[in-house]
Design brief:
Structural class of chain B: alpha/beta
CATH class of the largest domain in chain A: Mainly Alpha
Helix content of chain B: 25-40%
Distance between the termini of chain A: 42 Å
Oligomer: heterodimer
Structural class of chain A: mainly alpha
Number of helices of chain B: 9
Strand order of the largest sheet of chain B: 6-7-8-3-9-10
Helix content of chain A: 55-70%
Low-confidence stretches of chain A: none
Mean pLDDT of chain A: 86
Radius of gyration of chain A: 26 Å
Largest interface: A-B, 23 and 27 residues
Number of domains of chain A: 2
Shape of chain B: globular
Distance between the termini of chain B: 10 Å
Largest sheet of chain A: none
CATH topology of the largest domain in chain A: MetI-like fold
Chain lengths: 365, 261
Amino acid sequence: MAVHQPLPDLPPPPSERGIWGWFRQNLFSTWYNTIASLVVGYLLITWLAPIVNWALISAVWTGDNTDDCRPGAACWIFVQQRLGFFLYGFYPADLRWRPNIVFVLFLITVIPQFFSGAPGRKWLALFGITGLPVLAFILIKGGYFGLDPVATSRWGGLMLTLILAYVGIIAALPIGVLLALGRRSEMPVIRGICVTFIEFWRAVPLITILFMASVMLPLFLPQGVTFDKLLRALIGITLFQSAYMAEVVRGGLQAIPKGQYEAAQALGFGYWRSMRLIILPQALKIVIPGIANTVISLFKDTTLVLIIGLFDLLGAVRSTLSDPAWRSVAAEGYLFVALCFWIFCFGMSRYSQNLEKKLDTGHKT
Amino acid sequence: MADLDPIAAPVESAAADEDIIMVRDLNKWFGQFHVLKSLNLNVKKGERIVICGPSGSGKSTFIRCINHLEAHQRGEIIVDGVVLNEDLKNIEAIRREVGMVFQHFNLFPHLSVLENCLLAPIWVRKTPRKEAIEIAMEYLERVKIPEQAHKYPGQLSGGQQQRVAIARSLCMKPKIMLFDEPTSALDPEMIKEVLDVMVELASSGMTMLCVTHEMGFAKTVADRVIFMDGGECVEEGPPSTFFSNPQQQRTREFLDQILQH
C-alpha cells in the first residue's frame, strides 16, 4: 500500500519578509501606488513640518504674560500660568491636596486595568466602582470628619470633567444593561416602561436636558427645595447616556444565539443567573466597541455643562481666553483642551481594544 | 453504520417499574399550526427510547416539551413525580433532573470546558467548587477528553464539543437525559465518537430519550423506537420488530428512505 507523504513547510519568499518586504508590498507594489506614496509623503512633510515647528520647536514655554510670546510660534505660557485653574477651577488652592489624593487613588485603580498580570486587579476595579466614588465625594466635597466644605459651584477644570465622566460612566452602564434587559422582557409593562424611557431620553438633545435640569426643574420643585446643580447635571448626563448604552447592549443581547438561552434553561438556571453568568458576559463582550464608543462620547459630552455655568476643563480654558491678557492664545488654548481630551479618550480606546483581545476565546458564533 | 452488539438491558430493580416520565394527551400549537397531536408516552426508569421521523414531524418539539423549553397547551406531563405546569418552581425542579444535549452543542463559548461543566453544579446544585471539579473531571474522563479541560469550546472539533456538552449535562447528575439530534451537525468522522459515548451512557442504566436518525444506534441501544409523523405517534415498538416488521405503511416508507444508503 502507498503511504502518503505530506509536503514540508517552506519559508515564505524574501519579498514577503522584513521592512523592505513590507514597504514593497504596501507602498510600492505598483507604479501608481509608488506615485501615490511619494505624493502623500511629500504633502506630509511640507504640511507637518511647519506645524511641528510652530507647536514644539520654536514655541515659547516659559514666561509671565503674553509679552514674552513671539509671533509665528505657539505660546504655552498661559498653560503654565493658569494650570491650577484648568485643573481645579475655583477650588481653594490650600485644599487642592484633597482632589489630588482622589486623583492618585484613581490612577492606582485605573492603571493596573491595562495590565492583565497586575496583582489585585479585580479588587481594585471593585474599589473603583464602589469605594472610590464615595471616598471622592467625602474628600472633595468636605463637610465630614472635620474637612472644610467646598461648594460644588467652586469645582471646575479637569477635575470636574473627570468627576462628571467617571460617575456618568459607572452609573450609565448598569442602568443601560437593566434597560436593555427590560426592553427584551416578556412582561409587557416592564417592556413598555423601558421602551418609553429609552425613546424619550434618546430623542432629546443633551443640551435641552441640561437646560431643563438647571433652569426648569427648580420651577417645578416646591418652594425651599433645592438640589445641587452639579448633581442635576450628573443625573441628566447619566440618564441620557444610559439610554444609548441600553441600545448598544440590546444589540449584543440579540446577537446571542437562542441555543445559549436554551442551554442555560435546560441546566436549571433561572432568569437572573443565566443573564449574569451566561448571556451578559457574552453580549457585553460583543458590544465592547459600541460601549467604548458611548463612553468616549459621554466623556466629550461633559463639556456641554459649560452652558449651565459649570466650568469644566473646556469652560475653564474658555474663560481664561476671554480675559484680555490672554486673548491672543486662543489657538493654543483649544489645542491644549483637545490634547487633554485626546489623552483620556485614546486611553479608553486602547483599554477597550485590550479587553477585546483578552476576552477573545476564539469562538465565532 | 458499524454493527454493534445489542446491549443487555440494565438489571431490573424494584424502582425500575416506576414510570419516570408520563405524558398524557399532549397537544401543542405554534399559532394555528397543530404540531403535537394527542401524544401519550410512559417511560420507565432506565428505559432507552429513540424517536425518529421526518423533519417537521414534531419529534424535537416533543422532547423539548419534557423539560419545558416549549410550553404545551393541553395535556399533562409528569416527570419524576413533578407535574409540569407554568409554575416556575416545578419547571426548575424538573430541569435540574433532566439533562439535555442539543444538535448545535450550545456550549458556553466564553468559558473553558471545565468551567462549562462547573457552572450549573456550583450555581444551581450548590455543590462546593472542589467537589464540582472532581465530578466534572470524572465525567470528562468518561467522555474521553479530560486533557481538553482548560481549552475553550471554540478550540475543539464538533465531536469533542458534543462530548463536552454531554459531560456538562451529566455533571448535574440528571435522572433523565434528552438528546435532540446530537449527531446531525457533525462530520461523519465524528459521529462515531459521540455515539460511542451515548452507547456507554446507555449501558450504565441512564434513562434516555433520543431524537436521532442513527438507526444503527437505535437498533443497538433502544428498548423502544417511536416513529412520529405530522405531530402524531405513528408506530411504536421494540427495535427487533420495528425495523424488521413495521406495521404501518408510513413507517415502511420512512425506513426505506433512510436505510437505502
